[in-house]
Structure prediction request, 962 residues.
Amino acid sequence: MLEKTVAELSAGLAAGEFSSEELTRFYLDRVERLNPELNAYVTVTAERALADARAADARLAAGEAGPLTGIPLAHKDIFCTQGIRTACGSKMLDNFIAPYESTVSQRLMDAGMVLLGKTNMDEFAMGSSNETSYYGPVRNPWDVERVPGGSSGGSAAAVAARIAPVATGTDTGGSIRQPASFCGVTGIKPTYGRVSRWGMIAFASSLDQAGIFSRTAEDAALLLAAMSGFDPKDSTSVDQAVPDYRAELDGPLEGLRIGIVREHLESEGLDGEVAGAVRAAIAEFEKLGATTREISLPNNHLSVPAYYVVAPAECSSNLSRFDGVRFGYRCEDPKDLEDLYKRSRGEGFGAEVKRRILVGTYALSAGYYDAYYKKAQQIRALIREDFRAAFQEVDVIMGPTAPSSAFRIGEKTDDPVSMYLSDIYTIAVNLAGLPGLSIPCGHSAGLPVGLQVVGDYFAEGRLLNVAHRFQQATDWHKAAPGAIA
Amino acid sequence: MQWEVVIGLEIHAQLATRSKIFSGASTAYGAEPNRQACAVDLGLPGVLPVLNAEAVAMAVKFGLAVNAEIAPRSVFARKNYFYPDLPKGYQISQYELPIVGKGRLRIDLEDGTGKEVGITRAHLEEDAGKSLHEDYHGLTGIDLNRAGTPLLEIVSEPDMRSAAEAVAYAKKMHSLVRYLEICDGNMQEGSFRCDANVSIRPKGQAALGTRAELKNINSFRFLERAILFEVERQIDVIEGGGEVVQETRLYDSAKNETRSMRSKEEANDYRYFPDPDLLPVEITAELLQSGRASLPELPDAKRERFGAEYGLSDYDAAVLTASRELADYFESVVANASDAKLAANWVMGDLSGALNKAGLDITASPVSADSLGGMLRRIADNTISGKIAKQVFEALWAGETDADAVIEAKGLVQITDSGAIEAVIDEILAANPSQIEQYRAGKTKMLGFFVGQVMKVTQGKANPGQVNEILKKRLDG
Prediction:
């Protein structure tokens, strides 16, 4: 059961090789054994999982099962789950139990999936290493002294360590793709608006998008199809039909035009072994019939600075609701209203969250708005235009997901800018609202390296097809960390 | 020094939608605290706003009614500040791109002249909740039922030059939003609120003086008083050698004064930026078309028609069209009675007087338009006199519905038979010879005495014209 993908587990359930309850117990046992060291889960919902599994078995027996019925999964602890704590990696929400269900978790629940628990994450999804979590860092299953990446580090580590067959994540500047790269799993961030944000706690609303961690592109296709689509509760979700992603997986790659971003491979901080792994992967695509050409994204170097204006600006406003008045953390014995605000927020938020609230508040202030927020939005338009021009010439853009493999815990915690630069290849994709994925494509010093594939708007099917064909031809996605048996 | 007063008004009209502007919770007034606040209104994590299309349609209707530019694309923005009754820590409003642009409203002044007041803009926004300071023993209660209620904030140009003009503008706007059926106009419940920006400048000076913004005004009377007080205060400050500071001032109706709430320095930096949770509002040609089609006859047009169609004075037409309900009532009465002038007199006179006394609105009138019309028909055809009609009206007010039945039951039919009137007159003349002498000696006002006697005997039913005529003939004869 350990090495079976979701698609294979689905076939096993359908054939009656094992029940969902057996499968669920198998995973719960692994969670119990491995999670104490990895700290990937912050909440394990064993009872709920078994109840879900029995219900799924009944559906299977009744012949009412879909391809995901009875498959266990984990949700990033940013998706509100009715009746189960949703803490978002923060002391602020350590006591928060939502009275509603996020659209993503609802749709996967409706598909019959079994909830194993909620995964650890950087506080309010702000971080690239999962070290800002109130619940402590997640450890990378490939090397427990290293970070899993972030902010969806718990979900990435859980799938890599085979303590969840599949998990949800969110990606605001790389928070699915970078941890997928660091943990050697497949991670997809869809087009902005493809998946509803209802019930997903907001970090930066114009950038946040839910996605999937899985071991294969095929599994990602299965889940993405189930969770995508218009939601009347999210005005920014797009009313466009969801294709059958699985049906597109086997499409030929002959004639696929791959763009290689000149600025990416020339960038200073890029690790040599990472660059080598990416080049080798691209050569593999050429063998599969694809052609490559160099393209330019001339404004790419502005993406990190623009992002660190837009995202903090939006977060400074989004996080104002955490004021100690109606829910969440409230300081002891406030002496007046101002004291209530200051101490509840001062004690409830961690350092990185406070840093971003301050930066964002500054960027939106009278007299600075034009110089920062407005300018950043203009850059965003330029970046979008760069991509638009690029997709006139190529079908997908490939490059490294992150400049290096997983770094050591504590290595970058005192240097926020160096930390921010670990998202240098992923951030522009969010600013443009495009879909992107990361697939394992090699190793650097024994640690996984990810290949990022970016497509045009709503080209998720094409991205998954490209990733699937690569995974048919290579075995990098099958590599598992040593110490997980 | 001669001072000129400059006033601009910001009116918050609560839009009469059934649900809130960004959630499905009810907007009904008066529920138990926090019973009409859903997860979106509470600002719980992960929830998202969805715009109520009805609120947009109402804003469009308003814009068309004041001849304003309707923005083809307007944007919701977040106004950020912390307050316990503001759940999200920001209010969703419109800032750089409001839905309604420049427009104008014609107001009527007491001296009979009119004036156009410019409308700068009108934008959609959500209301905050309420902080309850009583009954919590030193603590503050929060009621979020009102949070998320749709508001249309209507901002005027500083075009008004007196408290009276400001009141005329506010009343006209109040009438308009009720005509449009986009706001119930209930000022006590806060459905229609006025803030006044008041400044003064030396007469003849072009530059504006420093303004104070007056808040917490919940009636037209208080609007007038607050402005009058504030103008006097500003004159005193300047003539005393001081300077008016830009600030927000609270009107205290109990003390009839305004006092400082916060100065410009203490004002929040609202850090407006476009709300990324909401798409820009696109106003299509179809929406404009249906907005136009849904416009009722507006007050000015109705007033003109009342003058032309019913031959009413401009004043009467203005009074009768002040509210759509009163105008509708009047037209129903006319449809029953045919004599428009008579109908106007009764509606504006006895009926309005009785309603005011009882504290009732025209829509709650105990006398229906049909009943009143029925009575007026009997005045017009001389069945009863105007004076007797007052008795009939009283009966209708008390619950009777059919004027004819009242007239019949009480025997109020006017005596128009000259023979009968002559008989009564002869009797009275015979009984009062000394009064006849006085009259004939030149004390002609004794006529009134005789009329009174005739009316007393006939219980007021004798036709007054005929009584006068016959009496004069006899006395002068």
Residues 6-257+393-484 of chain A form a domain with the Amidase signature (AS) enzymes fold (CATH 3.90.1300.10).
